[in-house]
């Protein structure tokens, strides 16, 4: 009994180590290859479960994928790991930013009204991008033909901007004194 | 080849035991053997060791004689490599001939002893050869151990673009610059809260039901907000977005979405 | 106190996770980047030591190398892990190892200087093999005709040998007592 428990612990350490150093997921067939003796699939499953248990509350988790088992960083640690090799954060296109600015400063207003200000069409993709980000929403409908939706920015948008209310948006009052360049820069 | 297996040369885990013991060796064996040496210094070291010679007192004649036999074999087989061995042979012969000459002037100061130079090179090479062996004995990544390599799934987290209020202002400015509609779109800060309040009221009424007018006002957040809310209601009415109704004076005022008027009867019909 | 202990545990888990998923050794500077707040080097050292302690008797060990800290499988698990990937990396030839040793102990030096010590030409293939393994690199040029490159070993070489610095290389045999070992021991 004593020795079998000891063996079990040893098997578990070997499997855990193999999973931690392997660049690819390992399936049961791979794991069996680690040992000279034939291991029962049942035992392997028990050991894998024990490893999962042992890693509760740690930074990695043992996950089963289509191609096998693999350790990966838990979702909640990703933000820290991202900092190690920060990828350049993606940027929204000018079209998205302008649409957002118009809705933020002038909403609620319809897509047609946004297009009027921008002078160009606002694609469905732009609206979808901002809706999926949960930064804009339809808060009502204009009683004109087609009953177009009225877009406004959301509370989540203000939260993400670190603002308490829309009145905290950078004031545009001093615009009159600004020398507006002929061409939108860049 | 009479000796039992006993490694004589360092060949990284492969001890060499089948080396010829003297000069009388068939050329084929020589060829195989010479491939195992890393050059003339290596071969010379072997010969010195093999004959149990004092490394600091190399008997040039014997070593050179043997050496020439090897070199001859090399020359037949592999001319390019032989050049280095020939160079060494020339050096050995030079040393030998010097030693045969009677020493006339005793140590002319800086006249260097070619023997000393050879010994220095042999020692240095041997040192590096041993060091190479030692390094090879160190546990080596990939060969003797594996690095940890758990998975960090970058794609699991979609990185969203970051936007700051200043970016918004920039976007707005660019817009204005392009449209040259500066005056039309000048927005005063206080107007912002009105439009924000308009959104809030529209959301509140989104269900389509009537709301009591007073419900639109949050009395706990100060007079300015009440005023702004009131202006928002007026603005929404003006834009035809909400309908305000009162059956009789002093009766509660009800508000609902203007669109609900069109939508309600249809809803009731079903 | 309670919360500081909790923080400490959290910091430890984050660092451990980063070290387990990193494809490169992480130095103190890297580890600091994991956190938005400034961490004291002293604290980091304590945490690294705590992680080393925590992995006692497990299949991996945290080692300090030339370019930082990294987890590796303990040597005694290699026989098991080899069964997974039976193709062993090739043992380098004596010519490669001697060239490497000369660069490690005598570098930076030129190819010509290596050839002088070895008494034989150093083929381009040898240099390429070591460069591709990222064990040697050109760190400068000798100001002689042809401006030959000066080779030195890299930090990656020390890392792969499990060493913190060149001073940890096996000591050179002393010239005076240079007696060729009777038997290539092992």
Automatic annotation (TrEMBL), chains A, C:
The cross-references to Pfam families, in alphabetical order and at most eight, read: SMC_ScpB (PF04079)
Q: For this UniProt record, give its keywords in alphabetical order, as a comma-separated list.
A: Cell cycle, Cell division, Chromosome partition, Cytoplasm
- For whether the record's keyword set contains Cell division, the answer is yes
The organism's superkingdom is given as: Bacteria
Q: Which InterPro entries match?
A: ScpB_csome_segregation (IPR005234), WH-like_DNA-bd_sf (IPR036388), WH_DNA-bd_sf (IPR036390)
- Choose any GO biological process term that the UniProt entry carries and state it: cell division
Quote the protein name from its UniProt record: Segregation and condensation protein B
Species of origin reads Chitinimonas taiwanensis DSM 18899
UniProtKB/TrEMBL annotation, chain B:
Q: Which GO terms describe its biological process?
A: cell division; chromosome segregation; DNA replication
GO CC terms in record: cytoplasm
Mind telling me which InterPro entries this protein's record contains? ScpA
The cellular location(s) given in this protein's UniProt record come to:
Cytoplasm
Keyword Cell cycle applies: yes
What keywords are annotated for this sequence in UniProt? Cell cycle, Cell division, Chromosome partition, Cytoplasm
PANTHER family reported in the protein's UniProt record: SEGREGATION AND CONDENSATION PROTEIN A
Can you tell me which family this protein belongs to?
Belongs to the ScpA family.
Q: What does this gene product do?
A: Participates in chromosomal partition during cell division. May act via the formation of a condensin-like complex containing Smc and ScpB that pull DNA away from mid-cell into both cell halves.
Describe the subunit structure: Component of a cohesin-like complex composed of ScpA, ScpB and the Smc homodimer, in which ScpA and ScpB bind to the head domain of Smc. The presence of the three proteins is required for the association of the complex with DNA.
List the protein's name. Segregation and condensation protein A
What gene is behind this protein? scpA
């Amino acid at each position: 009994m004593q020795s079998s428990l000891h063996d079990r612990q040893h098997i578990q350490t070997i499997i855990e180590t193999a999973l931690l150093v392997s660049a690819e997921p390992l399936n049961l067939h791979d794991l069996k290859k680690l040992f000279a003796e034939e291991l029962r699939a049942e035992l392997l499953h028990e050991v894998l479960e024990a490893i999962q248990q042992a890693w509760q509350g740690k930074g990695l988790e043992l996950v089963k994928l289509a191609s096998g088992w693999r350790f990966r960083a838990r979702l909640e640690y990703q933000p820290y790991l991202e900092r190690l090799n920060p990828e350049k954060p993606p940027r929204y296109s000018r079209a998205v930013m302008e649409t957002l600015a118009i809705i933020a400063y002038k909403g609620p207003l319809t897509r047609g009204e946004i297009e009027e200000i921008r002078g160009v069409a606002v694609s469905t993709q732009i609206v979808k991008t901002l809706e999926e980000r949960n930064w804009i929403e339809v808060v009502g409908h204009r009683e004109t033909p087609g009953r177009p939706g009225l877009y406004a920015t959301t509370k989540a948008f203000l939260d993400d901007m670190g603002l308490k209310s829309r009145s905290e948006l950078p004031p545009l009052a001093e615009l009159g004194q600004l020398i507006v360049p002929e061409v939108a820069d860049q | 080849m009479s000796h039992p297996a006993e490694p004589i040369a360092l060949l990284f885990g492969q001890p060499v035991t089948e080396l010829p013991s003297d000069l009388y060796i068939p050329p084929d064996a020589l060829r195989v053997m010479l491939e195992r040496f890393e050059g003339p210094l290596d071969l010379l070291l072997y010969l010195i060791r093999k004959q149990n010679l004092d490394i600091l007192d190399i008997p040039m004649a014997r070593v050179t004689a043997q050496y020439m036999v090897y070199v001859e074999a090399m020359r037949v087989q592999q001319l390019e490599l032989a050049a280095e061995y020939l160079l060494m042979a020339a050096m050995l012969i030079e040393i030998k001939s010097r030693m045969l000459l009677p020493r006339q002037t005793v140590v002319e100061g800086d006249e260097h002893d070619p023997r000393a130079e050879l010994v220095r090179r042999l020692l240095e090479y041997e040192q590096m050869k041993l060091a190479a062996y030692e390094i090879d004995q160190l546990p080596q990544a990939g060969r003797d151990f594996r690095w940890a390599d758990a998975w960090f799934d970058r794609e699991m987290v979609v990185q969203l673009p970051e936007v700051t209020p200043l970016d918004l202002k920039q976007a707005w400015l660019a817009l204005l610059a392009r449209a040259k509609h500066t005056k039309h779109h000048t927005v005063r800060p206080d107007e912002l809260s009105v439009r924000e309040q308009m959104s809030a009221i529209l959301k509140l009424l989104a269900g389509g039901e009537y709301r009591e007018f007073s419900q639109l006002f949050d009395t706990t957040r100060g007079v300015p907000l009440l005023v702004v809310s009131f202006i928002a209601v007026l603005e929404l009415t003006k834009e035809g977005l909400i309908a305000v109704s009162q059956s009789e004076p002093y009766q509660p005022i009800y508000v609902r979405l203007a669109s609900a008027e069109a939508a309600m009867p249809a809803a009731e019909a079903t």
